[in-house]
Amino acid sequence: MADEVILLDFWPSPFGVRARIALREKGVKFEYREENLRDKSPLLLQMNPVHKKIPVLIHNGKPVCESMNVVQYIDEVWSDKNPLLPSDPYQRAQARFWVDFIDTKVYEPADKIWSTKGEVQETAKKEYIEALKILEAELGDKPYFGGDNFGFVDIAMTGYYMWFEASEKCGNFRIEPECPTLMASARRCLQRDSVVNSVPDPEKIVEFAFKIRKIYCV
Amino acid sequence: MADEVILLDFWPSPFGVRARIALREKGVKFEYREENLRDKSPLLLQMNPVHKKIPVLIHNGKPVCESMNVVQYIDEVWSDKNPLLPSDPYQRAQARFWVDFIDTKVYEPADKIWSTKGEVQETAKKEYIEALKILEAELGDKPYFGGDNFGFVDIAMTGYYMWFEASEKCGNFRIEPECPTLMASARRCLQRDSVVNSVPDPEKIVEFAFKIRKIYCV
């Protein structure tokens, strides 16, 4: 029997896109189901009763939740193609460390840049650039965080790369002068087939961000 | 050459203890180095320049940071004894999901119970019990979160189990009537050799909590 793989997702989500990319890196066929986050489907509520959040990967009826947990699950189940995590335990620990850094230090300021204004937004911009600079230093002269290969940390970051333009426009600032190496790696990531097929048009994300921004920043 | 394993730690830390327990589950000999968190050692600052936090495991000169990342590293390096994560990818994903739940939904209210008072503390107590009840339901009739075996999720929780008495005394409430099954599992965990040898005397934690509480709740 073929695997049944369903992804509950929301198109501009920097988290949902991680699962999409991982599945495409592995060549896994899946059914994409768009969720309306203001009227969540009974399936989403049933499959992720604790957090009620996307993405949820439903593999042969069984749910896996939390985006990077989903990515790691995909890497372990479809282990024959394009490994996302390194095999060496030390390198694996480093990759998990940086993903945790991204989810704690990049997420919050990124979120505030498009949902706040004034001083709060200014502080968020500073914190965002500070976190990106730490990542820039970690990247060094490697093409990807995964070294020569697009990997676990790159997938985590691609969710933010696809939001770079919207972040810059909402915050009226530029990332490239501060983080040229990271920006070069971002472009490299955004050109991959698995990513091109998973990431929405940046213009649409900008439009979405400003639409939501109007609600948050009245 | 034998492995050189050093753990930078702080005795009452619910995070540090996770690394201690994992090392003892695996029978790994290690040098424990107590950190003064008000005057961090140059070694800690050098080994964890990003977060500057304990625990840090230094294995043959190379640092691994973030407690559950350390535990997973230990599990992968010393894989021949007492596996902490299951081998099945789905079960592994479930274990990681619950550890993430603990670190996001248990940590914050637990922290507030001993560091705040009044309404903030009351809300924290409610949120704490709510989170523990979700864990109680997940535990079901299993002796451990790891099923018949003490595992990854149990190690994550033991840091909180060792603080239960201090939390109850600081918050003037009781956990057992709300979560009898979780409490039974907590007692089981706290009796393990690896845990007994890693966890400080509960009285000392109570004393520590009230000492710090005096500073936060003036």
From TrEMBL, chains A, B:
> In terms of domain of life, where is this protein from?
Eukaryota
Could you name the Gene Ontology cellular component terms for this entry? Answer: cytosol
- Domain named GST N-terminal: residues: 3-82
The GO biological-process annotations, alphabetized, read as: glutathione metabolic process; toxin catabolic process
Q: Which reaction does it catalyse?
A: RX + glutathione = an S-substituted glutathione + a halide anion + H(+)
- E.C. number(s) listed in UniProt: 2.5.1.18
Which InterPro entries would you find in this protein's record? Glutathione-S-Trfase_C-like, Glutathione-S-Trfase_C_sf, Glutathione_S-Trfase, Glutathione_S-Trfase_N, GST_C_Tau, Omega/Tau-like, Thioredoxin-like_sf
Report the GO molecular function annotations: glutathione transferase activity
Q: What does this chain do?
A: Is involved in the conjugation of reduced glutathione to a wide number of exogenous and endogenous hydrophobic electrophiles.
Q: Family, per the entry?
A: Belongs to the GST superfamily. Tau family.
Its protein name is Glutathione S-transferase
